[in-house]
Design a protein that fits this description.
Layout lengths: L1 H15 L4 H17 L5 H17 L9 H22 L10 H4 L6 H20 L2 H12 L4 H8 L3 H19 L4
Helix pairs in contact: 2-3, 2-4, 3-4, 6-9, 7-9, 8-9
Length: 182
């Protein structure tokens, strides 16, 4: 009898809040999937984000009545989306590489392959040393350090066009030395 009263009071709390979670999930699950999908998520992430929305709603305390559950649902979805983006940035999502047997197999890092890699790095370092100092600096800042051309131009005190010319000169020089020049 006491369990029946507890279940009834839980159901009443959901009703008192102005929404039924299961009904919202049926009505808005597809809408939320489209909402997250249009923002460029993988399907697995979309499903997780939709579930996070309903998990937050389920965890909400039944203290106040929600006048417009649909608006509250979409506000929650927006909050889940912002948290998702924030987490991707703080966890260095762009730096992660998925495991691939072919790419990460132990055979790929055999002694011959390691030696080839070291020799290629030495050749690249030698090629960079052959470049004029400003061209080398621009190339290293853009290609090695990953700075944007505009930021490099501001840092060095030259135009973005000059940065592009230095990059073209360095890339051509390195390509010729490595035999990749067409």
């Amino acid at each position: 009898m006491k369990n029946e009263q507890n279940n009834t009071s839980k159901n009443t709390q959901v009703e008192d809040n102005g929404f039924h979670l299961e009904e919202l999930a049926r009505q808005y699950g597809v809408v939320l999937s489209r909402y997250f999908g249009r923002r460029g998520c993988d399907q697995a992430d979309v499903d997780d984000l939709v579930q996070n929305v309903f998990t937050r709603l389920a965890g909400r305390r039944a203290t106040t009545h929600i006048e417009n559950p649909e608006a509250y649902l979409m506000t929650t979805a927006s909050s889940v989306w912002k948290d998702y983006l924030r987490k991707r940035i703080t966890h260095g999502y762009k730096d992660h590489v998925e495991y691939d047997d072919e790419q990460h197999s132990p055979e790929c890092f055999g002694p011959d392959r390691v030696l080839e890699g070291r020799e290629a790095v030495k050749r690249l370092a030698a090629a960079l040393m052959e470049l004029p100092p400003r061209t080398r600096q621009v190339y290293v800042l853009c290609r090695v350090d990953g700075m944007k051309r505009k930021d490099v131009a501001r840092r060095i005190g030259i135009s973005v066009s000059a940065i592009e010319k230095h990059l073209m000169k360095a890339t051509t020089h390195i390509s010729v030395l490595f035999g990749d020049y067409r």
